[in-house]
Amino acid sequence: MKNSPIFIWHHKNAIDNIIGKIHRYIGLDGKKQDIPYYNSEGQEFKAGIPENLKQSGYPLFCLETFKDVNRVLIVCEGQKTQSAFAGLGLQCVTSILGAGNAHRSNWKNIEDAGHIYIAPDNDTNGDRYAKTIYQLIGESP
User: Fold this and answer.
1) How far apart are CA 84 and CA 101, in angstroms?
2) Could you tell me how far CA 15 lies from the centroid of its own chain?
3) What sign for the dihedral angle of Cα 88, 122, 62, 107?
4) Tell me: the pLDDT tens digits for 74-90?
5) CA distances (Å), 105 to each of 61, 74, 78, in order?
6) Torsions phi, psi for 46 (to 5 deg)
């Protein structure tokens, strides 16, 4: 029997429509596993990511919080951190499926942001994530 996910994050687009979801599972060994559900069949989502999203880049998680290019936008490492910042009313996004997948995301939707802060985890993966994000979105003039 499959365990129930400990988190389910609903993924919305910029106009607040649900486009998929991420289920997080924690194994008995303590390892986490995020399973994407982006294959839509009507109002239901099945596990996996459709080819069109793989080719165009994974959508950013919580892009719907980015409404004002003049306010700071925070790029977080992961859905839990993003959810915490969003709960404070901040504009924040993250790539889906962990720090190692930042390069698979479509960052074009935030290129108009005037001020971007990067909020990685305080570990080796976080350092790599921050560097990758910086390279992907570039330095603002």
Assistant:
1) 21
2) 16
3) positive
4) 999 988 888 899 899 99
5) 10, 16, 13
6) -110, 155
